[in-house]
Specification:
heterodimer, A: alpha/beta, Alkaline Phosphatase, subunit A, two-stranded antiparallel ribbon, B: mainly alpha
Chain lengths: 406, 154
């Protein structure tokens, strides 16, 4: 139960979630283990067997761009291989995740042994000054997993609805309206909520349900920045990055993709994260009253060493024709671990969170904070851990104690 | 604490002619799914170029997004701010089986087959205030205790 007597909670008025694309925890934050062993990152001795049977060690040589090309496969069958190392339930009905199939999975895309080794590369923290600083200076989640072992759209659905309505692929699907989106719940109760996409050319990934039926929920990233500057930020904001390189609509130049989805330059995403953080950080009317979550939708097919745990079944079943594997999926196991950082001046620096979270924790947390008890939600969301209890400092951190970027 | 420098990407990192990823491909497909249900007159106003690069995708997505934002919205009664009442519990149904996936003609969620209520298609779109209310079913099983990252006592 959230302790609403905490000063950070009593001051809390806004929650902002930025969801980036397709990078695993170890790939982005694994290097932090060296300085802080509480962060469950990499020792450098983790391995995956390649297609020749040789163990391939993780390497701190992740590149900003042009390394993970082709885009690593992150659809359900490939992720099943990555997590279970190629062991099927026919071979072992009680198979356990061993995280040994990443190199083999990447090999399958090009049959290139040398290139397949790139999938276990990771960034040193100097290459990601924004994400790693925020992870060290606020709260980093050791156990935030994607909601299903599959691709983007169904994982993002868990952040919006608390479920993917039985979807494990990227195909069009319609909500069943039994479980309203977090936006609809908030608006129906008189609260304010908005999804901010980067611009109309990038738009939202929530096309068929939310953008088509509730376009009034949407704004641009410029709208977000304006709202911050004018102290008009909604109570809940969900931000999507730019998904494509394209010309600025007003002819003012080029807009580089900043979602960090391979093969987009990771540095553009670092700048974007910094800009979202700065929009809140620089405003003394927002900074004390806002909690910000930076999270990634799924691991993008990239290596992580932590096996995803079993979880509360969602009440749906995806048959083999949908999963692309011999087995149905009962939405009873989480996906691969992703980077997740919680930011607030009410969080102690160096906080490391070890409870299990997943994307259903997002609507779960927002609902719990703004609405209280609410039953018409998926079993996964009802069971999901909420995260605001980590705003637990008795005093707000001094301005000089909280990082800024330029 | 000194401000931390954030280096940006070099100019050559930008490539609007990059082939679209599977993600953007699917995003375009979702917009196409909507477009295909529009009248021929409306479709004629939307870009029909090939979409193979990020720039081509961006131009199409921009036009479709602009269209979706520009459609007149049904007027709603002014919202009153009221305290939310706990909804009547709904008994969970049996697990829903996903119909055969990836068949382009079958785009609806399996859950929709259970309901005789109007489906959420563009043709059947209703405003929030006029949507049919789902009739509550008999009371559900007790929800499990919510887990919370409660403040740990030091």
């Amino acid at each position: 139960m959230l302790d609403r007597t905490l000063p950070g909670i009593q001051n809390l008025k806004h929650i902002v979630v930025l969801m980036m694309e397709n990078r695993s925890f170890d790939h982005m934050l694994g290097a932090l283990h060296a300085d802080n062993p509480k962060i469950d990152g990499l020792t450098g001795n983790e391995t995956n067997l390649d297609s020749t049977g040789e163990p391939v060690k993780v390497t701190p040589d992740a590149a900003f761009q042009s390394q993970l090309d082709p885009d690593p496969d992150h659809h359900f069958p490939a992720v099943d291989l990555q997590i279970f190392g190629g062991v099927t339930t026919a071979q072992n009905p009680n198979r356990k995740p061993n995280m040994q199939g990443f190199v083999q999975s990447y090999y399958n895309q090009q049959n290139n042994v040398g290139h397949s080794h790139k999938i276990v590369s990771y960034f040193t923290d100097d290459k990601l000054p924004v994400l790693t600083t925020l992870a060290k200076q606020y709260a980093v989640f050791n156990r935030w997993f994607s909601s299903i072992p599959g691709p983007t759209l169904c994982n993002r659905a868990f952040a919006h609805y608390g479920t993917s309505f039985g979807q494990v692929s990227m195909d069009v699907f319609y909500w069943n309206k039994k479980y309203k989106s977090i936006y609809e719940r908030l608006v129906a109760a008189g609260h304010s909520a908005r999804l901010y996409y980067y611009d109309q050319a990038s738009s939202s990934l929530e096309v068929v349900n939310l953008l088509q039926n509730q376009p009034e929920l949407f704004g641009t990233f410029q709208d977000f920045q304006d709202a911050c500057n004018r102290n008009k930020l909604p109570e809940y904001s969900f931000i999507e990055p730019n998904y494509t390189d394209h010309d600025a609509p007003n002819g003012t130049g080029e807009l580089i993709a900043n979602d960090q989805h391979p093969d987009h330059d990771v540095r553009a995403g670092e700048q974007f994260i910094a800009s979202v953080y700065t929009a809140i950080r620089k405003n003394p009317n927002l900074w004390p009253n806002t909690a910000m979550l930076i999270v990634y939708d799924e691991h993008g097919g990239i290596y992580d060493h932590v096996p995803p745990p079993a979880c509360e079944p969602d009440g749906f079943v995806a048959q083999p024709s949908a999963t692309g594997t011999p087995d149905p999926f009962h939405f009873d196991r989480l996906g691969v671990r992703v980077p997740a950082v919680l930011i607030s001046p009410w969080i102690a620096p160096g906080t490391v969170i070890n409870e299990v979270f997943e994307h259903a924790s997002i609507p779960g947390t927002i609902t719990d904070f703004f609405l209280g008890p609410y039953d018409a939600r998926s079993p996964r969301e009802i069971a999901a851990t909420t995260f605001l209890g980590y705003l637990d400092q008795s005093k707000m951190r001094a301005d000089s104690d909280c990082p800024t970027f330029r | 604490m000194e401000p931390i420098l954030v280096p940006g990407p070099p100019k050559e990192a930008f490539n609007k002619h990059r082939p679209i990823s599977d993600l953007v491909k699917k995003q375009v497909e979702h917009f196409k799914h909507i477009e295909e249900r529009l009248s021929p007159d409306l479709r004629a106003t939307l870009p029909q170029h090939q979409i193979a690069t990020e720039d081509e995708a961006a131009r199409y997505i921009s036009a479709m997004t602009s269209y979706l934002l520009s459609r007149p919205r049904p007027k709603r009664a002014a919202k009153k701010t009221v305290a939310i009442k706990p909804p009547v519990p709904i008994r969970p149904g049996p697990p829903l089986t996903l119909a055969a996936a990836a068949a382009p003609a079958r785009k609806k969620s399996p859950a929709k087959k259970k309901s005789a209520a109007k489906k959420e298609t563009p043709a059947a779109r209703k405003s929030l205030s006029t949507r049919a209310k789902v009739k509550p079913k008999a009371k559900e099983a007790k929800p499990k205790a919510k887990k919370s990252s409660a403040k740990r006592k030091k």
